[in-house]
Design a protein that fits this description.
With 200 residues, this protein is α/β, with parallel strands linked by helices. The chain has five helices and eleven strands; from the N terminus they run H-E-H-E-H-E-E-E-E-E-H-E-E-E-E-H. Helix 1 packs across helix 2 and helix 2 crosses helix 5.
């Protein structure tokens, strides 16, 4: 997948270089990433690095022609982290030239525009979906603390008031109220570390 994204970005740079002789910004050079969690932050950080390192090889392109936009429905990126770390990562990404649009989602892609739920339309030829999927509807029925529709856990993977949930890589919650079993496999910490490295 990474190779396919890299190849697509290089194709966009070549297309934009041919079409940007007049020095105008172009949708080929606008990269939108949906999702402000680890995967989205790592993705937009990697694209930002790749394009900014490569743009010097294209005579008609300038750094001010490119836009990197991270769209997240949360108040800040990396909501899995504590607020101070999230704010620090968001400041670092902004300093690196990434525009962060919070409190909204991608609603559609049509006619060369990425449309957001806040009504904004972004002319762009690249959208990478790194947003989480909606939580399983079973979660809503569970009598557990939730944030953004997901079960809220602390840094030890414990659910407040539910000590039986434990601290394993795979958290099993047997919920007799709904007579269902919810099994949630956690992402490896590598993904989180990589996103933080990109942000910092």
């Amino acid at each position: 997948m990474r190779v396919a994204i890299r190849d697509q970005i290089i194709t966009h740079l070549e297309e934009a270089n041919a079409e940007c002789a007049a020095g105008e910004p172009h949708p080929w050079l606008t990269f939108v990433v949906a999702g402000g969690s680890f995967a989205g932050v790592e993705t937009v950080g990697g694209i930002n690095d790749l394009v900014r390192e490569s743009i010097r090889f294209y005579s008609n392109l300038r750094p001010d022609h490119v836009r990197f936009i991270l769209v997240t429905p949360d108040k800040m990126i990396l909501p899995e982290l504590n607020q101070n770390l999230s704010m620090h990562a968001q400041r670092k990404m902004t300093l690196k030239g990434v525009e962060i649009v919070t409190g909204t989602k991608v609603s559609a892609v049509r006619n060369g525009c990425v449309e957001l739920t806040n009504g904004e339309k972004i002319p762009a030829n690249t959208l990478i979906w790194a947003a989480d999927n909606a939580p399983n509807s079973l979660i809503a029925a569970l009598p557990l603390p939730k944030r953004s529709g997901r079960i809220e856990v602390n840094e030890y993977l414990e659910v407040d008031g539910w000590p039986e949930c434990g601290r394993s890589e795979t958290v099993r919650l047997f919920q007799t109220f709904a007579r269902a079993v919810f099994i949630h496999r956690l992402r490896s910490t590598h993904c989180g570390r990589a996103a933080l490295r990109r942000a910092m």
